[in-house]
Amino acid sequence: MANDTISVPLDVYRFDPLHDAQPRYQRYTLDLAPHTPVLTALLKIRAEVDPTLRLRYSCRSAICGSCSMQINSKSRLACETHVGPEVELHGRVVVEPMRNQPVVRDLVVDQAPFWKQYDRMEPHLKLDPAKPMPEGRPNPMTEAQVERFHDTPRCIACAACFSACPAVEADPEFPGPMALAKLYRFVVDPRDNGTQDRLVRIQTEGLWLCLRCHLCTDSCPKNVRPAERIRDLKEMAIRVQGATERGSRHAVGFKDNIRSTGTLNELKLARQTSGFAGFVGQLGQGIRIWRKKPEITKRPHPVQGAEELEKIYEALDKPGDRR
Amino acid sequence: MKLAYYPGCVAQETGKELDLATRWVCKTLGIELVEFPNFSCCGSGFVDEANEVLNVAINARNLAIAERAGLDLLTICSTCQGMLTLANVRMSDAAVRAKVDGALRPLGIEYKGTVRVKHLLRVLVEDVGLPALRSKVRRPLAGLKVGAFYGCHLLRPSDETGGEPGEEPRSFEQLLDALGAEPVYYRGRVMCCGFPIQFVKPETAARITGKQIAEAKDHGADAMATPCPLCHISLDAYQNKAEHAVGRSLSMPVFHLPQVVGLALGATPEELGLSRHLVPTDAALAKIGTAARA
Questions:
Q1: What are phi and psi of B292, to 5 degrees?
Q2: DSSP characters over B9-73
Q3: Cβ–Cβ below 8 Å for A266 and B39
Q4: Residues with Cβ < 8 Å from A68, sequence gap 6 or more?
Q5: Would you tell me the crossing angle of helices B257-265 and B171-178 to the nearest 10 degrees?
Q6: What is the model's pLDDT at position A322?
Q7: B199, B213, B241: which to substitute to probe chain A, counting the most A Cβ within 10 Å?
Q8: Chain B within 8 Å of A152 (Cβ-Cβ)?
Q9: Any chain A CB within 8 A of the CB of B61?
Q10: Which residues are bridge partners to A78 per DSSP?
Q11: What is the pLDDT averaged over residues A148-159?
């Protein structure tokens, strides 16, 4: 084993709301092997340099999900993020608490906002009272049915996705990636009696605020792909209930908008999504844009071969056609 | 170099200045753009929300057009790049492929899956190469601090885009450096511009847009530059809404990627369609000794 060490400057966020007016960053410089996990570095600081440093951790094996924090702005598990690549890319390791949750002290956050959103999704099996579980054994599922859960059971609730999510940051109505991935898991559970209700409810409770930025997917230490499960929920919600909300109206409106021409008619789509009142409300902005970009009112030319698109839609966009 | 040119909807309509600048830059660098009037819209992520398989099929049709011509495909929009790449990825799923093939075959269309989808940013950095680009710079953007704004779909999910790390890319900053500009690093450069929910909840979208612009400004950016015309709509055309949402004046000029390249290669502001922006670019142009004609 090579025992070459590198000098690792760690800038650690320090804040005690009871005593400090402002958070500050404290520099610790340690000699470490490049493959040292950030968590190990922090524990070394606590053991050998500064016993007042507060952080949350448990298993050190990327299983418990306790040590999530921001490392050079990325929401990650400290136990599986190594110092070497961070120093190589950034010259230092900036360690901060997770975002979108209030800081209790140093790197410890109050996870209440995260769990509140999780509870809102009612992530538990809702059985049909008229159909009790078979005596003596649980409801069996086929392998194919279990596969529909996809990647969601792998989630360890570390909240890295919640911390990384710009929609969570901007709007408390958005449940966040993890909560929605968990919702998905129960929506596709064949034993669950609430699928329909869950999908109808979520349409008005933040589903359409997902920005599809995939920061959740890139942050997840367990390779869950919340953005894709949110996409799945959107398509299922439309199939169950139709396009009833602005978000679903926009998605369905966009799909139908390009069907016969192959190109987007922006003005028509804005009218469909926003409704008459909403559209009128946007007129001022529309005129501002039109002064510089008069094409906004132009009806675009259909692309050549648009009839091919029509045929593709006929084949793949039948009402009630389930994936 | 010869590529199938996929301009996307926006660059053909309200974002025409992007198309203009792309053509100028490609002509100057000797990149031949082959046009196909039968390319359709990529679905912009919205069709994917409504019907995943349909979205793949629409884009497999687009990719098949380039494949028949034996060309790789050039995009100038992060979202087009993402959707066409997604189609390539999803077509490797046998069940999806069967459905898509079933819809395309009766039309005499087959997509074998050989087309590489390349955004202009990647073509400039990987194919033209930064040393070659640097040698063609006639008006170095010296003294201009530029905050790159990537656009999500160019970057993530990073295991599918086949590019650079999805939260800490470097290519745009390296490009800006080659043009003589000073890249500004700020967290928002890899974040969402707010566009996807512009019509769903405009006030939330404006908060998101405002946050990113404000962060670029607070890190000293004189201007921002983006490889995505949808981000450009949020950052430029809706900047007034963003200013209102964050409660401060921003006045941030926002360039399209080929506009900053064009400026450095010697194009005039007129040749790059700069007068079509909602937020004037004059202050940024003055920094590099170029005046925009009114």
A1: -85, 135
A2: HHHHTTTHHHHHHHHHHHHHHTPEEEE-TT-----TTHHHHH-HHHHHHHHHHHHHHHHHTT--E
A3: no
A4: A75, A76, A77, A78, A98, A158, A159, A160, A163, A221
A5: 20
A6: 46
A7: B199
A8: no
A9: yes
A10: none
A11: 95
Nearest one of B32, B112, B38, B110 to B74, comparing CA atoms: B32
| A267 pLDDT tier (thresholds 50, 70, 90) | confident
Task: Pull the structure tokens for residue B159.
Answer: 């295991």
Q: CA-to-CA distance for A221 and A237, rounded, in angstroms?
A: 28
Backbone dihedral angles phi then psi of residue A105, each to the nearest 5 degrees: -170, 135
- Helix, strand or coil, per DSSP, at residue B156: coil
Nearest CA in chain A to B157: A214
State whether B40 and A323 contact (CB < 8 Å).
no
CA nearest neighbour of A13 among A96, A80, A90: A96
Task: Give the side-chain half-sphere CA count within 13 A for A97.
Answer: 23
Can you tell me the distance from the alpha carbon of B104 to that of B119, in angstroms, rounded to the nearest whole number? Answer: 26
Interface membership of A322 toward B (CB under 8 Å): no
What is the maximal distance between C-alpha atoms in chain B?
58
List the single residue in B with minimal CA-CA distance to A172. Answer: B204
Query: pLDDT tens for residues B221-259?
Result: 999 999 999 999 999 999 999 999 999 999 999 999 999
CA dihedral A129, A133, A134, A137 (to 10 degrees): -170
Q: At what angle do helices B52-68 and A226-241 cross, to 10 degrees?
A: 110
Radius of gyration for the alpha carbons in chain B, expressed in angstroms and rounded = 19
Give me the sheet containing A68-71, strands edge to edge.
A24-32, A6-14, A93-96, A68-71, A74-77
CB contact under 8 A, A247 and B200: yes
Per the rule left: phi > 0, alpha: psi between -120 and 50, beta: everything else, A91 is left
A113 vs B237: CA distance, rounded Å: 34
Query: pLDDT digit string (tens) for B164-214?
Result: 999 999 999 999 999 999 999 999 999 999 999 998 999 999 999 999 999
Calculate how close chain B gets to A167, using CA atoms only, in Å.
Answer: 8
